[in-house]
Automatic annotation (TrEMBL):
Its cofactor is FAD. It comes from Endomicrobium trichonymphae. This is NAD(P)H/FAD-binding nitrite reductase large subunit. Belongs to the FAD-dependent oxidoreductase family. Residues 1-302 form the FAD/NAD(P)-binding domain. One of its GO terms (molecular function) is oxidoreductase activity. Signal peptide: none annotated.
Length: 423
């Protein structure tokens, strides 16, 4: 059996593990358009800040591929899939055949239309999604640099944290009215923003960059939609990502915003699977198909795809939006439905730089935000995943801190014996 995987990040690597766990003899080839082995994308801001050295970026050892008899083709771009002949063609002219194919092409930065902006020519304009991005940005930093970051989402804020203390100033621009607007309510966002601002990072909301000025190879000023002009030595574009679906789309595989897959990670074409940030997942809370670009989601989807490619049939775990991150030591975990509605009960328990916000609907926990309050995140997550009726618990979860004793005795015993950490 020939297994071919396009993509070498969380989904692709975990798929290879899943394949090898069930098929010791089949050949596995991984194609990657990057030059590095399997590294941790969440670490790129820590590399930028100097907290993580280059040798510590990798979450798989150097002998990972060799020990599993996996062939890896780095710096190799997959250009075309012939679904009838079961062949993949690369930009370098290589032709690779397969019996089972996984598309794990991830996502790419979204570049907004900005007058005079040209990332192919301007040497001080960067995106911040890959290890290579972080390396290039690190080389550009000097102490007097004035940095402008377009985007106050997770990527933009982590870029700001990585640059802190190494440049003269950092200004973050966003069209929304708060940081991380897609995953945080205003109360939670205000706590995060206030903490980040204590580290001399400025925010400008409800505006965007509409024009850049400078020479052909550099940007030295940005013009905002509110008319303000900012000096700029380094510009980082971090306004969002888009799933890489063109390869699948050209091959006739069904796509929408992402590649369409079933619960076994099968695409619309036989023997072709997809996983990770390039696919649409069904959000268990809304029952809607959407892009859930999460490291843990990509990992579990990749493993699921790997198992199913070998004929060992399993379903992908139920998924919902979840983020676990820290900013300058402030711990944030958000999950599920964050917004409010008439049918939801919102419970907020807050103190200075600390918040517990629970979103309850129809006797079930459907979302939460925890700031510096993360010791019970695993239990809250389990309550959502298991669709637990809160009325069946031993006490009201809104009234006090929770532990495993919140579950009835029989259920508590099961969870203790099956406990794998995280609570």
């Amino acid at each position: 059996m020939k297994y071919l995987i396009i993509g070498n990040s969380a989904a692709g690597v975990n798929a290879a593990d899943g394949i090898r766990a069930n098929d010791k003899k089949g050949s596995i080839t991984i194609i990657s358009n990057e030059e590095f082995g399997a590294y941790g994308r969440p670490l790129i801001s820590y590399y930028l800040s100097g907290k993580v050295r280059s040798e510590s970026m990798y979450y798989r050892s150097e002998d990972f591929y060799k020990s599993r008899n996996i062939e890896v083709l780095l710096n190799t771009e997959a250009e075309e899939i012939d679904v009838k002949k079961k062949e993949v063609f690369t930009a370098g002219g290589k032709k690779l055949s397969y019996d089972k194919l996984l598309i794990a092409t991830g996502s790419s930065p979204f570049i907004p239309l900005v007058k005079n902006l040209d990332l192919s020519k301007q040497e001080n304009v960067f995106t911040f999604l890959t290890y290579k991005d972080s390396i290039k940005l690190k080389k550009q930093i000097i102490g007097k640099s004035k940095v402008v970051i377009a985007g106050a989402g997770l990527i933009g804020l982590k870029a700001a944290e990585g640059l802190f203390g190494q440049v003269s100033s950092i200004t973050v621009i966003d069209l929304a009215d708060r940081v991380m607007a897609s995953v945080l309510d205003k109360t939670s966002a205000d706590i995060i923003q206030g903490h980040i601002e204590q580290n001399d990072i400025d925010f400008k909301f409800q505006t965007s960059i509409c024009e850049v000025h400078g020479g052909e190879r550099n940007v030295n000023k940005v013009v905002l939609s509110n008319g303000e002009t900012l000096d700029c030595d380094i510009l980082i574009i971090a306004v969002g990502v888009r799933p890489n679906i063109n390869l699948a789309k050209k091959a006739g595989i069904k796509t929408a915003k992402g590649i369409i897959v079933d619960e076994y990670m099968r695409t619309s074409v036989k023997d072709i699977y997809a996983a990770g940030d390039c696919v649409e997942s069904v959000d268990m809370l809304s029952n809607e198909s959407k892009i859930l670009a999460l490291w843990t989601n990509a990992s579990s989807q990749g493993e699921t795809a790997g198992f199913n490619m070998t004929g060992t049939e399993i379903k992908a775990p139920a998924a919902f939006a979840m983020n676990a991150i820290s900013f300058f030591g402030l711990q944030l975990i958000s999950a599920g439905v964050i917004g409010t509605s008439k049918s939801n009960e919102i419970v907020t328990d807050s103190a200075e730089n600390k918040l517990r916000r629970l979103n309850i609907s129809n006797d079930k926990l459907v979302g939460f935000v925890l700031i510096n309050y993360n010791q019970r995140a695993g239990i809250y997550t389990a309550l959502i995943s298991d669709r637990t009726k809160l009325s069946t618990l031993e006490y009201d979860i809104t009234s006090k801190d929770i532990g495993l004793d919140v579950y009835p005795k029989e259920e508590r015993t099961k969870k203790i014996w099956n406990h794998k950490g995280g609570c």
